[in-house]
């Protein structure tokens, strides 16, 4: 493009490229002036949506005439590509000059940006992408707001995809991230972030990955300015605080309001000192000029020396006493970590076991929703079940500051629950209480314990967190007990227990049709195999249950995760699945299963590094989860890191030598490495643990002994075809590949593809198919499946 003449513009150099366009510096040969030309990125010009958005940018900017907005001169087309002719700004982006060294300059820039936004908002235009990269400062120290490519005009067609989040993540308002309505107040939030960055050189909301940034924006408060700056004007801190309110209703409602505040700050920073309130001292009169509330006090009457010394002494004494009081009697620092040890079922009554386990798990889940608190996950603390462990020892082993213990005794319909909250560091009791309640009151016990624990840990809860602790997921105590029973059997993680769990969850929603968490339980059971029909029917039921849960409560991370899993594995709707995985992580960044399943999703989408990072995040959140540990081994297999997978799965077997998935995945890896004896040993072990008919196992073992690898797979295929009238064609296709029968393998793979059989999506990374990836039949199957080999 350099040196090329388009219309009457000669391209001089490329200035930059972003998601919505490529920008060149050019010479206007007619008017002999320097301009900037903005084209759509190569290849996107034919996309009607992108072209429409490109025109929207031009039209939005063209109706604005303001000294702090980059002027648009024309819209033209060249060889099918439209481009915008706009003012060339000779300067630097705001990102290149932050932090601004002088307070006065920083406030001046901020006011100019705000005035540009005020002009846009007056014309019904919301920028939606205010950030340091979209703001330039020219050689005359004048701000120019650029790129209205994401602007939304009132009454214009909504061009963005449903639920998409347009803009740059770190500058987005909470409602923008969460897919809510975006208006001028969203620009004000983004402006608050830019103002914070101008002053400090730091973003107020940060994180190591996108999910962490999203969580910070939605849930956390930024560090105060005084962490980075000395003598910050109180009005300036207030302006930023109000601009960055999470709820749009609590923010400045118009840019004009924040401009007034900034002008006030500008007035006083010009005079070289921060705002202060006048104080009248005994024996003195204060004299002020035209702006008395912000001027230093001038004493006209001299204070006697003895009085002054006495006054200073009194003030010093008060300060010292106040400091000592805060040191010894002041508010305690919050305790930021806790383990809820499994409540003890006194008497080991099997009819009470579901209650002791369920109450423990629900307390863990409730407390885990508090952003300030690290809570040890269920899979880790339940290793202490039945061990009679000393709480202090357990707390030190788990590296937490507090431990909650409990004992449950049931006599008929009556419950006696003893609780104790222990400070591990101080080796002291923070709180203890004994409850005498009916079983029907277990729901309210859970709430009361959660609230008192949060209080005794001295946590500063947000309004949302307080509501979460005080609002039960159901008001029906019978439904709650059925839910606890469902989770009790769900946690056994077997097909038969999942079926039993699903039945309890179904009973719970029959009693309370608005019990969202019970619908989540149903979805989880069907995903695990708690349905007696076909796998396809189970996945359909799981999808229905997850969607029902989300209609009741759209902020359930578990429901988003379950729905994402079905959309990915059964429906092969990958974009929709990814949105729900990311939504789940945004809502609850500490939900390990969301990271786990999203990690596997990313690996299957040929993003192994990102996928393994999510898997390791899941493991760090729940290090003793057998399923997460085993799935990490599978992730290594898909990523072709076989030795890492073997090491990981052996670690998993150290946690539980009979965990079936560990043996299955080890079999896959040994098979990929050509270690056939080891692979068969693991497959047979898997069958034994699953309690497959011992006769069938014996026949498989005999077939391998007689005819080796091919004998084993021939017998495996025979058993699958014999034992089911409608077998899943995908495992059969894999068995034929192991047998070396490519013809039948591809025949069954095509059938699996047509049916979108559960598991067929795995072919993207499964080593089993490497031998036929170049086969035209395999390529055509993948193309029809729409999964991008």
Characterization of the model:
The protein is an alpha+beta fold and 789 residues long. A hairpin with a 2-residue loop joins strand 1 and strand 2. Helix 15 packs parallel to helix 17 (516-528), helix 27 crosses helix 28 and helix 28 (729-739) runs antiparallel to helix 29. The relative contact order is 0.04.
Chart the SSEs and their pairings.
Blueprint (H helix, E strand, L loop, with lengths): L4 E2 L2 E10 L2 E8 L4 E7 L8 H15 L9 E7 L2 E7 L3 E3 H4 L5 H20 L2 E2 L8 E4 L4 E3 L6 E2 L20 H4 L6 H17 L9 H10 L14 H10 L11 H16 L15 E2 L10 E2 L5 H25 L7 E4 L3 E2 L7 H16 L5 E2 L2 H4 L9 H7 L4 E10 L2 E10 L4 E11 L3 H15 L6 H8 L6 H14 L4 H17 L4 H13 L6 H18 L4 H13 L4 H14 L4 H13 L3 H14 L4 H13 L3 H14 L4 H13 L3 H14 L4 H30 L5 H11 L2 H14 L20 H10 L4
Parallel strand pairs: 14-16, 14-17, 15-17
Antiparallel strand pairs: 1-2, 2-3, 3-4, 4-6, 5-6, 7-9, 8-11, 9-10, 12-13, 17-18, 18-19
Helix pairs in contact: 3-5, 3-8, 5-7, 6-20, 7-8, 10-13, 10-15, 15-16, 15-17, 16-17, 17-18, 17-19, 18-19, 19-20, 19-21, 20-21, 21-22, 21-23, 22-23, 23-24, 23-25, 24-25, 25-26, 26-27, 27-28, 28-29, 29-30
The CATH superfamily title of one domain: Transferase(Phosphotransferase) domain 1
From the coordinates shown, what is the CATH architecture of one domain?
Answer: Orthogonal Bundle
Number of helices: 30
Radius of gyration: 33 Å
Biggest sheet record: 6 strands, antiparallel
The fold-level CATH name of one domain is: Transferase(Phosphotransferase), domain 1
N- to C-terminal distance:
34 Å
């Amino acid at each position: 493009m350099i040196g090329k003449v388009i219309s009457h513009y000669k391209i001089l150099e490329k200035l930059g490229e972003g998601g919505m366009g490529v920008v060149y510096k050019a010479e206007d040969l007619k008017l002999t002036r320097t301009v900037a030309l903005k084209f759509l990125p190569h290849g996107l010009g034919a996309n009607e949506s992108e072209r429409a958005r490109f025109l929207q940018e031009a039209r939005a900017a063209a109706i604005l005439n303001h000294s702090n907005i980059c002027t648009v001169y024309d819209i033209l087309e060249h060889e099918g590509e439209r481009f915008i002719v706009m003012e060339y700004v000779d300067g630097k982006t705001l990102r290149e000059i932050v932090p601004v060294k002088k307070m006065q300059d920083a406030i001046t820039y901020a006011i100019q940006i705000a005035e540009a936004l005020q002009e846009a908002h007056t014309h019904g235009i919301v920028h939606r992408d205010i950030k340091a990269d979209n703001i330039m400062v020219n050689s005359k120290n004048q701000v120019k707001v650029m790129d209205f490519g994401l602007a939304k005009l009132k009454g214009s067609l909504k061009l963005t995809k449903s639920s998409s989040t347009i803009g740059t993540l770190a500058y987005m308002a909470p409602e923008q991230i969460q897919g809510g309505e975006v208006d001028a107040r969203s620009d004000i939030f983004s402006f608050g972030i830019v103002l914070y960055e101008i002053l400090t050189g730091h973003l107020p909301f940060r994180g190591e990955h996108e999910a962490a940034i999203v969580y910070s924006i939605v849930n956390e408060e930024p560090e105060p300015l005084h962490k980075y700056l000395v003598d910050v004007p109180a009005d300036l801190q207030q302006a930023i605080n109000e601009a960055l309110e999470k709820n749009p209703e609590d923010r400045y409602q118009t840019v004009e309001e924040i401009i007034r505040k900034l002008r006030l700050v500008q007035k006083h920073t010009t005079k070289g000192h921060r705002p202060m309130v006048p104080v009248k001292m005994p024996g003195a009169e204060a004299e002020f000029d035209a702006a008395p509330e912000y001027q230093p006090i001038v004493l006209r009457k001299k204070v006697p020396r003895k009085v002054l010394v006495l006054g200073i002494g009194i003030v010093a004494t008060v300060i010292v006493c106040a400091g000592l009081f805060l040191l010894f009697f002041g508010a305690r620092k919050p305790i930021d970590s806790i383990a809820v040890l499994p409540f003890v079922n006194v008497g080991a009554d099997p009819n009470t076991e579901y209650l002791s386990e369920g109450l423990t798990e629900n307390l863990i889940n409730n407390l885990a929703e508090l952003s300030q608190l690290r809570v040890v996950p269920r899979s880790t603390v339940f290793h202490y079940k039945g061990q009679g462990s000393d709480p202090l020892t357990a707390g030190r082993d788990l590296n937490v500051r507090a431990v909650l213990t409990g004992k449950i005794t049931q006599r008929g319909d009556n419950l006696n629950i003893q609780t104790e909250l222990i400070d591990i560091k101080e080796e002291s009791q923070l709180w203890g209480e004994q409850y005498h309640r009916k079983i029907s009151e277990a729901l309210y016990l859970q709430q009361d314990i959660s609230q008192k624990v949060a209080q005794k840990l001295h946590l500063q809860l947000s309004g949302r967190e307080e509501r979460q602790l005080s609002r039960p997921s159901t008001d029906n105590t019978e439904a709650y007990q059925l839910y606890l029973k469902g989770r009790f059997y769900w946690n056994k993680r077997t097909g038969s227990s999942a079926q039993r769990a699903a039945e309890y969850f179904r009973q719970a929603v029959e009693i309370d049709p608005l019990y969202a968490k019970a619908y989540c339980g149903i979805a989880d059971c069907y995903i695990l195999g708690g349905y007696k029909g076909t796998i396809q029917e189970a996945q359909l039921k799981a999808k229905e249950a997850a969607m029902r849960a989300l209609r009741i409560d759209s902020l359930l991370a578990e429901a988003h995760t379950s729905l994402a899993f079905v959309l990915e594995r059964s429906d092969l709707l990958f974009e929709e699945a990814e949105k729900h995985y990311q939504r789940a992580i945004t809502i609850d960044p500490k939900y390990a299963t969301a990271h786990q399943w999203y990690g596997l999703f990313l690996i299957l989408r040929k993003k192994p590094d990102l996928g393994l990072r999510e898997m390791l995040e899941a493991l760090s959140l729940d290090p003793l989860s057998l399923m997460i540990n085993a799935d990490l081994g599978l992730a290594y297999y898909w990523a072709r890191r076989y030795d890492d997978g073997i090491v990981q799965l052996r670690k998993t077997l150290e946690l539980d030598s009979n965990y079936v998935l560990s043996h299955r995945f080890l079999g896959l890896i040994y098979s990929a490495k050509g270690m056939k004896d080891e692979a068969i040993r693991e497959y047979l072990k898997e069958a034994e643990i699953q309690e497959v008919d011992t006769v069938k196992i014996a026949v498989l073992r005999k077939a391998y002994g007689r005819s080796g690898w091919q004998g084993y797979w021939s017998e495996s295929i025979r058993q699958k075809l014999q034992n089911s009238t409608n077998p899943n064609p995908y495992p059969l296709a894999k068995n034929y590949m192991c047998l070396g029968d490519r013809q039948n393998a591809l025949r069954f793979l095509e059938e699996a593809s047509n049916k979108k059989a559960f598991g067929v999506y795995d072919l993207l990374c499964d080593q089993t198919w490497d031998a036929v990836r170049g086969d035209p039949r395999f390529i055509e199957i993948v193309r029809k499946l729409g999964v991008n080999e």
